[in-house]
Protein backbone atom coordinates (compact mmCIF):
# COMPACT_ATOMS: atom_id res chain seq x y z
CA UNK A 1 0.00 0.00 0.00
CA UNK A 2 1.12 3.55 -0.78
CA UNK A 3 1.35 6.29 1.83
CA UNK A 4 -1.22 8.95 0.94
CA UNK A 5 -0.73 11.38 3.82
CA UNK A 6 2.29 11.76 6.11
CA UNK A 7 2.49 14.28 8.94
CA UNK A 8 6.11 14.64 10.02
CA UNK A 9 7.19 16.29 13.28
CA UNK A 10 4.42 18.88 13.08
CA UNK A 11 4.59 21.53 15.81
CA UNK A 12 2.20 24.46 16.00
CA UNK A 13 0.45 26.69 18.47
CA UNK A 14 -1.68 29.77 18.90
CA UNK A 15 -1.05 33.23 20.26
CA UNK A 16 -3.51 33.93 23.07
CA UNK A 17 -3.99 36.71 25.61
CA UNK A 18 -2.54 34.42 28.27
CA UNK A 19 0.51 33.47 26.19
CA UNK A 20 1.55 31.07 23.46
CA UNK A 21 -0.32 27.74 23.55
CA UNK A 22 1.76 24.85 22.21
CA UNK A 23 -1.07 22.70 20.85
CA UNK A 24 0.87 20.19 18.73
CA UNK A 25 4.35 19.02 19.67
CA UNK A 26 6.25 17.13 16.93
CA UNK A 27 3.28 15.01 15.90
CA UNK A 28 3.69 12.21 13.34
CA UNK A 29 0.99 10.35 11.45
CA UNK A 30 0.68 8.40 8.21
CA UNK A 31 -2.31 6.96 6.38
CA UNK A 32 -2.50 4.75 3.31
CA UNK A 33 -5.04 4.57 0.51
CA UNK A 34 -8.14 2.66 1.56
CA UNK A 35 -7.14 2.69 5.23
CA UNK A 36 -9.35 3.87 8.09
CA UNK A 37 -7.10 5.42 10.74
CA UNK A 38 -8.46 6.37 14.14
CA UNK A 39 -7.01 9.41 15.92
CA UNK A 40 -7.99 8.99 19.56
CA UNK A 41 -7.46 10.82 22.83
CA UNK A 42 -9.21 12.92 25.44
CA UNK A 43 -10.97 16.15 24.52
CA UNK A 44 -8.41 18.91 24.08
CA UNK A 45 -5.54 16.61 23.04
CA UNK A 46 -5.19 18.25 19.61
CA UNK A 47 -7.14 15.87 17.34
CA UNK A 48 -9.30 18.53 15.71
CA UNK A 49 -6.37 20.97 15.47
CA UNK A 50 -4.37 18.35 13.57
CA UNK A 51 -7.31 17.70 11.24
CA UNK A 52 -7.72 21.45 10.68
CA UNK A 53 -4.01 21.80 9.91
CA UNK A 54 -4.28 19.08 7.25
CA UNK A 55 -7.27 20.86 5.73
CA UNK A 56 -5.50 24.23 5.93
CA UNK A 57 -8.32 25.98 7.78
CA UNK A 58 -6.50 27.17 10.90
CA UNK A 59 -6.77 30.94 11.54
CA UNK A 60 -3.75 32.52 9.89
CA UNK A 61 -3.71 35.54 12.19
CA UNK A 62 -3.07 33.50 15.34
CA UNK A 63 -1.54 30.16 14.33
CA UNK A 64 2.23 29.74 14.36
CA UNK A 65 3.83 26.75 12.62
CA UNK A 66 6.99 25.92 14.57
CA UNK A 67 8.15 23.08 12.35
CA UNK A 68 7.30 19.94 10.44
CA UNK A 69 5.61 18.96 7.19
CA UNK A 70 2.22 17.74 5.98
CA UNK A 71 2.91 15.63 2.90
CA UNK A 72 -0.09 14.76 0.76
CA UNK A 73 0.78 12.63 -2.26
CA UNK A 74 4.37 13.75 -1.71
CA UNK A 75 3.67 17.50 -1.67
CA UNK A 76 4.02 19.63 1.46
CA UNK A 77 0.69 21.36 2.02
CA UNK A 78 2.27 23.88 4.40
CA UNK A 79 4.37 25.36 1.58
CA UNK A 80 2.05 24.67 -1.37
CA UNK A 81 0.30 28.04 -1.19
CA UNK A 82 -3.37 28.85 -0.48
CA UNK A 83 -4.41 28.99 -4.16
CA UNK A 84 -3.22 25.42 -4.81
CA UNK A 85 -4.82 24.12 -1.59
CA UNK A 86 -8.13 25.89 -2.30
CA UNK A 87 -8.47 24.74 -5.90
CA UNK A 88 -6.87 21.31 -5.84
CA UNK A 89 -6.82 19.89 -2.32
CA UNK A 90 -9.49 21.18 0.05
CA UNK A 91 -12.96 20.04 -0.98
CA UNK A 92 -11.59 17.91 -3.83
CA UNK A 93 -8.74 15.57 -2.88
CA UNK A 94 -9.42 15.99 0.86
CA UNK A 95 -12.96 16.42 2.15
CA UNK A 96 -14.54 16.71 5.58
CA UNK A 97 -17.44 15.22 7.54
CA UNK A 98 -18.27 17.51 10.50
CA UNK A 99 -19.25 16.44 13.97
CA UNK A 100 -22.74 17.94 14.17
CA UNK A 101 -25.16 17.20 11.30
CA UNK A 102 -27.75 19.55 12.83
CA UNK A 103 -25.76 22.76 12.32
CA UNK A 104 -23.98 21.87 9.08
CA UNK A 105 -26.73 22.99 6.71
CA UNK A 106 -28.21 26.40 5.95
CA UNK A 107 -31.86 26.18 7.09
CA UNK A 108 -33.21 28.59 4.44
CA UNK A 109 -32.10 26.59 1.37
CA UNK A 110 -33.24 23.19 0.20
CA UNK A 111 -30.91 20.22 0.51
CA UNK A 112 -30.67 20.02 -3.28
CA UNK A 113 -29.57 23.65 -3.62
CA UNK A 114 -26.77 23.14 -1.12
CA UNK A 115 -25.59 19.86 -2.62
CA UNK A 116 -25.57 21.24 -6.15
CA UNK A 117 -23.61 24.29 -5.00
CA UNK A 118 -20.84 21.90 -3.95
CA UNK A 119 -20.99 20.15 -7.31
CA UNK A 120 -20.82 23.47 -9.14
CA UNK A 121 -17.36 24.11 -7.70
CA UNK A 122 -16.04 20.66 -6.80
CA UNK A 123 -17.46 18.19 -9.30
CA UNK A 124 -14.81 15.58 -10.25
CA UNK A 125 -16.08 15.82 -13.82
CA UNK A 126 -15.26 19.51 -14.10
CA UNK A 127 -11.90 21.20 -13.56
CA UNK A 128 -12.70 24.87 -13.05
CA UNK A 129 -10.27 27.28 -14.75
CA UNK A 130 -8.42 29.71 -12.49
CA UNK A 131 -10.53 32.70 -13.52
CA UNK A 132 -13.79 31.01 -12.41
CA UNK A 133 -12.63 30.92 -8.81
CA UNK A 134 -12.22 34.69 -8.83
CA UNK A 135 -15.77 35.40 -9.99
CA UNK A 136 -18.64 36.13 -7.59
CA UNK A 137 -20.66 32.97 -7.07
CA UNK A 138 -23.74 34.27 -8.89
CA UNK A 139 -21.67 35.03 -12.03
CA UNK A 140 -19.83 31.72 -12.31
CA UNK A 141 -21.11 29.56 -15.18
CA UNK A 142 -22.66 26.14 -14.60
CA UNK A 143 -23.62 24.70 -18.01
CA UNK A 144 -26.90 22.77 -18.11
CA UNK A 145 -25.37 19.51 -19.46
CA UNK A 146 -22.81 19.53 -16.65
CA UNK A 147 -25.49 20.25 -14.07
CA UNK A 148 -27.66 17.37 -15.30
CA UNK A 149 -24.69 14.99 -15.24
CA UNK A 150 -23.76 16.09 -11.72
CA UNK A 151 -27.33 15.71 -10.51
CA UNK A 152 -27.43 12.11 -11.74
CA UNK A 153 -24.17 11.45 -9.86
CA UNK A 154 -25.72 12.99 -6.72
CA UNK A 155 -28.79 10.76 -6.96
CA UNK A 156 -26.62 7.65 -7.40
CA UNK A 157 -24.51 8.47 -4.35
CA UNK A 158 -27.55 9.29 -2.18
CA UNK A 159 -28.84 5.86 -3.06
CA UNK A 160 -25.44 4.35 -2.17
CA UNK A 161 -25.61 5.88 1.33
CA UNK A 162 -29.07 4.33 1.73
CA UNK A 163 -31.17 7.49 1.60
CA UNK A 164 -34.63 6.58 0.26
CA UNK A 165 -36.25 8.49 -2.62
CA UNK A 166 -33.22 10.72 -3.35
CA UNK A 167 -35.01 12.94 -5.86
CA UNK A 168 -37.68 13.83 -3.30
CA UNK A 169 -35.09 14.32 -0.58
CA UNK A 170 -33.29 16.99 -2.64
CA UNK A 171 -36.46 19.09 -2.57
CA UNK A 172 -36.65 19.05 1.23
CA UNK A 173 -35.27 21.54 3.73
CA UNK A 174 -32.73 20.40 6.37
CA UNK A 175 -35.27 20.51 9.22
CA UNK A 176 -37.34 17.89 7.40
CA UNK A 177 -34.54 15.32 7.73
CA UNK A 178 -33.65 13.22 10.77
CA UNK A 179 -30.20 13.34 12.36
CA UNK A 180 -29.21 10.04 10.75
CA UNK A 181 -30.38 11.22 7.34
CA UNK A 182 -28.39 14.45 7.68
CA UNK A 183 -25.23 12.60 8.59
CA UNK A 184 -25.67 10.19 5.66
CA UNK A 185 -26.09 13.24 3.47
CA UNK A 186 -22.89 14.78 4.91
CA UNK A 187 -21.00 11.56 4.08
CA UNK A 188 -22.40 11.63 0.55
CA UNK A 189 -21.39 15.29 0.14
CA UNK A 190 -17.86 14.44 1.29
CA UNK A 191 -17.64 11.68 -1.32
CA UNK A 192 -19.16 13.60 -4.25
CA UNK A 193 -15.88 15.28 -5.36
CA UNK A 194 -14.19 11.87 -5.59
CA UNK A 195 -11.66 12.49 -2.80
CA UNK A 196 -8.59 10.47 -1.89
CA UNK A 197 -8.96 11.26 1.84
CA UNK A 198 -11.99 11.98 4.01
CA UNK A 199 -11.48 13.51 7.45
CA UNK A 200 -14.38 12.60 9.76
CA UNK A 201 -14.42 14.63 12.98
CA UNK A 202 -16.32 12.51 15.54
CA UNK A 203 -19.13 11.98 13.01
CA UNK A 204 -21.45 10.01 15.32
CA UNK A 205 -21.29 12.13 18.50
CA UNK A 206 -24.71 13.76 18.00
CA UNK A 207 -26.50 10.51 17.08
CA UNK A 208 -28.14 7.80 19.15
CA UNK A 209 -26.44 4.43 19.53
CA UNK A 210 -28.49 2.57 16.90
CA UNK A 211 -27.90 5.22 14.24
CA UNK A 212 -24.20 5.41 15.22
CA UNK A 213 -23.73 1.74 14.33
CA UNK A 214 -25.35 2.28 10.93
CA UNK A 215 -23.22 5.34 10.14
CA UNK A 216 -20.00 3.59 11.17
CA UNK A 217 -20.83 0.61 9.00
CA UNK A 218 -21.58 2.93 6.11
CA UNK A 219 -18.22 4.73 6.44
CA UNK A 220 -16.35 1.42 6.60
CA UNK A 221 -18.13 0.01 3.54
CA UNK A 222 -17.79 3.09 1.37
CA UNK A 223 -14.11 3.52 2.23
CA UNK A 224 -13.44 -0.06 1.15
CA UNK A 225 -15.55 0.08 -2.01
CA UNK A 226 -14.11 3.39 -3.21
CA UNK A 227 -10.52 2.91 -1.95
CA UNK A 228 -10.80 6.15 0.02
CA UNK A 229 -8.65 6.76 3.09
CA UNK A 230 -10.50 7.94 6.20
CA UNK A 231 -8.97 9.82 9.12
CA UNK A 232 -11.45 9.41 11.97
CA UNK A 233 -10.99 11.62 15.04
CA UNK A 234 -12.78 10.25 18.08
CA UNK A 235 -12.61 9.93 21.84
CA UNK A 236 -14.81 6.81 21.65
CA UNK A 237 -12.65 3.70 21.68
CA UNK A 238 -15.66 1.57 20.77
CA UNK A 239 -15.97 3.51 17.53
CA UNK A 240 -12.28 2.98 16.78
CA UNK A 241 -12.62 -0.75 17.43
CA UNK A 242 -15.62 -1.04 15.10
CA UNK A 243 -14.23 0.45 11.89
CA UNK A 244 -10.53 1.37 12.14
CA UNK A 245 -7.62 -0.53 10.65
CA UNK A 246 -5.11 1.25 12.90
CA UNK A 247 -5.14 3.69 15.79
CA UNK A 248 -2.94 6.69 16.66
CA UNK A 249 -3.10 7.92 20.25
CA UNK A 250 -2.55 11.55 21.21
CA UNK A 251 -2.13 13.10 24.63
CA UNK A 252 -1.85 16.86 25.25
CA UNK A 253 -0.61 17.55 21.74
CA UNK A 254 1.89 14.68 21.55
CA UNK A 255 1.61 11.37 19.72
CA UNK A 256 2.30 8.55 22.19
CA UNK A 257 1.45 5.29 20.42
CA UNK A 258 0.35 3.85 17.08
CA UNK A 259 -0.71 0.31 16.31
CA UNK A 260 -2.94 -1.86 14.12
CA UNK A 261 -6.31 -2.05 15.83
CA UNK A 262 -5.89 -5.68 16.99
CA UNK A 263 -2.53 -4.96 18.63
CA UNK A 264 -3.84 -1.72 20.11
CA UNK A 265 -6.61 -3.43 22.06
CA UNK A 266 -4.71 -6.66 22.81
CA UNK A 267 -1.33 -5.28 23.88
CA UNK A 268 -1.29 -1.51 24.57
CA UNK A 269 2.21 -0.31 25.44
CA UNK A 270 2.06 3.32 26.59
CA UNK A 271 0.89 3.93 30.18
CA UNK A 272 -1.64 6.47 28.94
CA UNK A 273 -3.08 3.99 26.43
CA UNK A 274 -3.43 1.29 29.07
CA UNK A 275 -5.21 3.72 31.42
CA UNK A 276 -7.43 4.95 28.60
CA UNK A 277 -8.54 1.39 27.86
CA UNK A 278 -8.96 0.65 31.57
CA UNK A 279 -11.30 3.63 31.88
CA UNK A 280 -13.89 1.96 29.64
CA UNK A 281 -17.01 0.91 31.61
CA UNK A 282 -17.02 -2.75 32.57
CA UNK A 283 -19.92 -5.20 32.49
CA UNK A 284 -20.76 -4.48 36.16
CA UNK A 285 -20.98 -0.75 35.43
CA UNK A 286 -17.71 0.18 37.15
CA UNK A 287 -14.88 2.15 35.53
CA UNK A 288 -11.40 3.35 36.51
CA UNK A 289 -10.60 6.99 35.92
CA UNK A 290 -7.21 8.49 35.11
CA UNK A 291 -5.91 10.52 38.09
CA UNK A 292 -4.89 14.14 37.56
CA UNK A 293 -5.88 16.66 34.91
CA UNK A 294 -5.04 17.34 31.28
CA UNK A 295 -2.28 19.98 31.26
CA UNK A 296 -2.77 23.55 30.11
CA UNK A 297 -1.14 24.01 26.71
CA UNK A 298 0.23 27.45 27.61
CA UNK A 299 2.56 25.86 30.15
CA UNK A 300 2.73 22.14 29.30
CA UNK A 301 4.95 19.73 31.25
CA UNK A 302 8.44 19.16 29.89
CA UNK A 303 9.48 15.85 28.37
CA UNK A 304 6.59 13.41 28.07
CA UNK A 305 3.52 15.49 28.84
CA UNK A 306 1.81 12.53 30.51
CA UNK A 307 4.45 12.13 33.21
CA UNK A 308 2.59 14.11 35.95
CA UNK A 309 -0.26 11.55 35.75
CA UNK A 310 1.89 8.46 35.11
CA UNK A 311 2.63 5.89 37.83
CA UNK A 312 5.60 4.56 35.79
CA UNK A 313 7.33 7.92 35.29
CA UNK A 314 11.07 8.20 35.88
CA UNK A 315 13.31 11.27 35.96
CA UNK A 316 14.16 11.00 32.28
CA UNK A 317 10.42 11.24 31.46
CA UNK A 318 10.45 14.75 32.94
CA UNK A 319 13.53 15.98 31.12
CA UNK A 320 13.27 14.68 27.53
CA UNK A 321 10.51 13.39 25.31
CA UNK A 322 11.01 9.71 24.40
CA UNK A 323 11.88 8.80 20.84
CA UNK A 324 9.90 6.24 18.88
CA UNK A 325 10.46 2.59 19.83
CA UNK A 326 9.34 0.05 17.22
CA UNK A 327 7.57 -2.94 18.74
CA UNK A 328 7.02 -4.80 15.46
CA UNK A 329 4.11 -5.27 13.10
CA UNK A 330 3.48 -1.55 12.65
CA UNK A 331 3.27 -0.96 16.40
CA UNK A 332 5.35 1.85 17.94
CA UNK A 333 5.38 3.74 21.21
CA UNK A 334 7.04 6.82 22.72
CA UNK A 335 7.89 5.73 26.26
CA UNK A 336 10.99 4.96 28.33
CA UNK A 337 9.14 2.32 30.34
CA UNK A 338 6.39 0.84 28.14
CA UNK A 339 4.25 -2.14 28.98
CA UNK A 340 5.47 -5.13 27.01
CA UNK A 341 3.40 -8.06 25.87
CA UNK A 342 4.31 -11.45 27.24
CA UNK A 343 6.39 -13.53 24.80
Describe this structure in words.
It contains 11 helices and 12 strands. The model has no long low-confidence stretch (mean pLDDT 89). The longest helix is centred in the middle third of the chain and has 18 residues, at 209-226. By secondary structure, the chain is an alpha/beta fold. The chain is 31% helix and 23% strand. The chain has one domain (3-270): Rossmann fold (3-Layer(aba) Sandwich). Helix 3 (111-122) packs across helix 4 and helix 6 (179-191) packs parallel to helix 7 (209-226). It has helices at 47-55, 82-89, 111-122, 144-160, 166-169, 179-191, 209-226, 237-243, 261-266, 271-278, 315-319, and strands spanning 3-16, 19-32, 36-40, 63-72, 75-76, 94-97, 197-201, 229-234, 246-251, 254-260, 325-328, 331-333. The strands form 2 sheets. Strands 6-7-8-3-9-10-12-11 form an 8-stranded mixed beta sheet, sandwiched between helices. Strands 2-1-4-5 form a 4-stranded antiparallel beta sheet, covered by helices on one side.
Tell me, rounded to a whole number, the average pLDDT.
89
Kindly identify the CATH topology: Rossmann fold
Looking at the overall shape, the CATH architecture is 3-Layer(aba) Sandwich
The tally of beta strands, per DSSP, is 12
Report the order of strands and helices: EEEHEEHEHHHHEHEHEEHHHEE
Class from helix and strand fractions: alpha/beta
- Report the total helices: 11
Kindly report the spatial arrangement of strands forming the biggest sheet: 6-7-8-3-9-10-12-11
The fraction of residues assigned to DSSP E strands is 15-25%
Amino acid sequence: MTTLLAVEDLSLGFATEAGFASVLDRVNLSIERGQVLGLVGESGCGKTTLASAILGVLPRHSVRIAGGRILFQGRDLLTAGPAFVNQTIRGRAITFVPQDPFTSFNPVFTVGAQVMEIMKWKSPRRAAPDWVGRLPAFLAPYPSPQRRSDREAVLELLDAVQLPRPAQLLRKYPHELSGGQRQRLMIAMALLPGPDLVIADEPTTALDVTIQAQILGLIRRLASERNVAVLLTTHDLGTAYEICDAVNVMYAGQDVESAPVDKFFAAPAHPYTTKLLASLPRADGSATGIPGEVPVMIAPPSGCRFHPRCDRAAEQCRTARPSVEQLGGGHWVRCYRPHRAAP
